[in-house]
Amino acid sequence: MRVKNVRYHILRDYNKEKVIVDDRSADGISPEMRENYVAFTCLLAVPDEGIVYCGITAYNGDILHAFDPETKKFRSLGYRAVAEKFEVKVHRSLAAARDGSIYGATACLHDVSRRREAPGGAIFRLAPRTRQIEKLAIPCRYDYIQTITLDAERRLIYGLTYPVFKFFVYHLDTGVVEDYDYIGSITHISALDDAGRFWGTWHNTQHYLFSYDPTTRTINWTRNRLPGAERDANRMYPGAGPVDVMINGGDGYLYIGSTGGALYRLDPRKAQAEWLGKPNPAARMPGLTVWRDALLLGVVGDENTSQVFVYDRDKKSFHNLGPIIADNGLGIYRTHDLALVDEKTLYIAETDVPGRSGYLWECTLET
User: Fold this and answer.
1) What mean pLDDT, rounded, does the chain reach?
2) N vs C: which end of the chain shows fewer Cβ within 10 Å?
3) Alpha carbons 226 and 150: distance in angstroms, whole number
4) How far apart are CA 262 and CA 300, in angstroms?
């Protein structure tokens, strides 16, 4: 198995030294950067539509696009028309419901000095067929939403906020918000176990695991955590926990990629995580998905070191499929998410590139 035919697709390209200012809201940067700088932060493949939905960073509010894998063309979904100026990205917040709706949430980049000017991140819905955008709620005033997890069966959206790390549950049918306020830690993306419980991390230094039971509407605050949680915390941004990605493996376990680049298996019945190993010495593991039943497909690495890998759950072994480098020698800088559109075609989101916009990367998985 290996990666081949690596290429990248450019939405808009800002090719100057990245501007770093204290206030990175839309009115704190140059007009050129406002209109042209983008980064890809989350991906959602909907095979029935032949579309990859792309959540991006864009200071002009145009933060949601559709990419057609056949034509290789991007199409704006028009979020700019409903955006307020502090909504500058969709971070790890896209999910598909059973009725064809797409749900998402908006994130921010402004600093704390602007906090009380900003209304807070919104949960939004793209309607089936028309893909008209409807804002549903601002669950937590002032705070923006870094990540959501959809419970399609119970019609719940779980969310974690930034810059204050809060946990909330949004009921789609009633509009009720359960706001559990500050929990001290945040995952890059969470998951549900087979019992429908949401899993995340809490505590600002220990980053313990917790689970929320939607049946009883109660939280189990465990004192268990990932091995190396303290070491791997703060790699994404100050205060963030060690969980880079979390998925339901379909075998009774949750699988976690850590910001330190390690893979773990979480037993939700015991709330205990087992270290499975590292594909290579690099840090970060922001993307993971089930592939071909017994395999887990993922991306690992950061700052031009990214690789695609496979973990064989039956053999308990890693296989490196190769680096994410195009034919012209350009490599992906920082991976942030992945999406499989079919068994052989993988898309990868790129973000935080010094000196240019991020691109949408594509590669073929040869077996």
Assistant:
1) 95
2) C
3) 23
4) 9
Average pLDDT over residues 351-356: 91
Which pair of structure tokens corresponds to residue 12? 């808009």
**How are the residues of the chain apportioned to helix, strand and coil, as percentages rounded to the nearest 5?**
5, 45, 50
In a 10 Å sphere around its CB, with 0-12 CB exposed, 13-18 middle and 19+ buried, how is residue 195 labelled?
exposed
pTM (2 decimals)? 0.96
Element (H, E) at 36: helix 31-36
Per residue in 129-187, pLDDT (tens digit) is 899 999 999 999 999 999 999 999 999 999 999 999 999 999 999 999 999 999 999 99
Q: Is 194 left (phi over 0), alpha (psi -120 to 50) or beta?
A: alpha
Q: 317-323 and 335-340: which strand pairing?
A: unpaired
| Residue among 199, 203, 169 at smallest CA distance from 185 | 203
Give the helix ranges, DSSP H, for 223-365: 229-232
Judge contact between 106 and 64, C-beta under 8 A.
no
Which residue bears the tokens 């995340």?
Answer: 200
Percentage of the chain beyond pLDDT 90 is 89
Torsion over CA: 327, 37, 90, 20 (sign): positive
Contact by Cβ (8 Å): 115, 121:
no
